[in-house]
Amino acid sequence: MASIADNGLPPETMPLAQSADALTSAMRAGSLDATRRLLKQAKLCARFRNADTSLKFALSAQETAKAPGKNGVFISLPPAGDEVPLTLAGLANSSAGEVLDNEALCADFQDPQKAIQFEAQWRAALMGDTGGLLEFALNPAIDSMRAFEQADRIDRYRARVLGFLTQAMAQHSALAACRT
Q1: CA–CA gap between residue 103 and residue 89 (Å, rounded)
Q2: CA distance 87 to 30
């Protein structure tokens, strides 16, 4: 049985795959703490999945480049402005840190359509949480490549985004003021 912290929620160190149901239930029951935590951890695990994919790609591409007949040629992207060129080794290194830092929390957690992340954004915004208002307005968990499937999210976003930004500004959020 999962242990429960003093606030009635699973411990923050519990993997999200194990705590997501309890956090989702608490969020739906109106817990702002659960909503904030679920949003934070779902975002973190989305970044973890992206970093894991990047790491696997970079390692695979490096191995392919070492194959006989490839002459050890590595792919690198040209820098934009003063940026350092992104090499496969650089991609692997930057991704490896993110993967290592969050593997315990995010292993086995699945939210491929970011439905949990979107619901947490939505509910945090409805609760009037400044971070939730801004997260929903400025970085909604909507995949434009899946616009047809996520039309309900787009409709909800369009209907409420200006009100949420206005509410965030009323709460004296400098970030909201800069974005409007």
Answers
A1: 20
A2: 46
User: pLDDT category, 50, cuts 50, 70, 90?
Assistant: confident
Q: What is the mean pLDDT of the chain?
A: 84
CA dihedral 104, 107, 113, 115 (to 10 degrees): -50
Q: What is the pTM of this model?
A: 0.77
Q: Which domain, by its residues, includes 37? A: 1-111
Tell me, yes or no, whether 99 and 128 share the same domain: no
- Residue type for 67, please? A
- 3-state SS, 20-51, equals HHHHHHHHHCCCHHHHHHHHHHHHHHHHHHHH
Q: Which two tokens stand for residue 59?
A: 């390692």
Whether the Cβ atoms of residue 123 and residue 161 lie closer than 8 Å to each other = no
21, 99: one domain: yes
Same domain, 72 and 9: yes
Q: Is there a single domain that holds both residue 32 and residue 73?
A: yes
Structure tokens that stand for 108 in this block: 């086995």
User: What per-residue confidence (pLDDT) applies to 111?
Assistant: 93
**Same domain, yes or no, for 97 and 121?**
no
Structural domain tally of the chain? 2
Distance CA 9, CA 32 (A): 11
